[in-house]
Design goal:
With about 200 residues, the chain is α+β, with helices and mostly antiparallel strands. It is about 40% helix and about 25% strand. The strands form 2 sheets. The protein has a 5-stranded antiparallel β-sheet. The protein has a two-stranded antiparallel sheet with strand order 4-5. A hairpin with a 2-residue loop joins strand 2 and strand 3 (about 65-75). The longest helix is centred in the C-terminal third of the chain and has 49 residues, at about 145-195. It is globular and about 70 Å long.
Length: about 200
């Protein structure tokens, strides 16, 4: 698993290099580790430069599971836009209303180097554009007005408290569930150990 770089890191503001399938053999490893890291931090998407990798690739949750997109390129975007709240793993507890095209067409390579082109809409299209911004050295903070950014930064401590409270509740819920499962398993073992063994003797008359 990788670790997220600090939010002040220049890596987040630098365009990573294209992934060269002819000279590199770690595409599947990057896909696996990026996916694991995204899962660990609870994200919808994660770009390589967010963890300090110089590679033009991101991973994203899709209907078919987590996918990796190597050397992604937008080929079309819709004129119709929508405004939605976005967050970012690199800037926890900051949420901003960002306007983006509702539909986009993406061309990319999978981890085997095979080329694909597909239309995306809704959350998928938004996530792709957010991750492509990362791969172009653009932060979602730059997509918001100065006033919106100031308000989001002011609300950041409150959002952090909300997140920590939620994480505590989640941890407590997992603890209770684990205790209940352990008690259930112990009860099953105790029940098995107290049963009378089957008789192997033969009774003749």
């Amino acid at each position: 698993m990788y670790e997220l770089v600090e939010e002040a890191s220049k890596v987040l503001r630098t365009r990573p290099s294209d992934f060269d399938f002819e000279t590199r053999e770690d595409a599947e490893e990057i896909e696996s580790k990026l996916s694991e890291t995204m899962e660990q931090y609870g994200g919808l998407g994660l770009s390589a430069n967010q963890v300090g990798l110089d590679a033009r690739v991101f991973v994203m949750r899709t209907q078919d599971g987590i996918q990796a997109f190597f050397n992604p390129e937008l080929t079309k975007v819709s004129q119709e836009t929508d405004l939605m709240k976005e967050g970012c793993l690199s800037f926890p507890d900051i949420y901003l209303m960002i306007k983006r095209p509702k539909v986009c067409e993406l061309r990319w390579n999978n981890a085997k180097g095979e080329e694909h082109t597909q239309l995306f809409d809704g959350i998928g299209a938004r996530c792709i554009q957010h991750e492509l911004d990362h791969l172009n050295g653009i932060l979602f903070l730059q997509r918001a007005s100065k006033l919106k950014l100031e308000r989001a930064l002011k609300a950041r401590p409150k959002e952090k408290r909300k997140r920590l409270d939620y994480e505590k509740r989640q941890a407590y819920a997992r603890f209770i569930q684990e205790q209940q499962e352990a008690q259930s398993n112990n009860s099953e073992r105790d029940d098995i150990s107290t049963r009378e063994p089957a008789s192997n003797s033969v009774v003749t008359k």
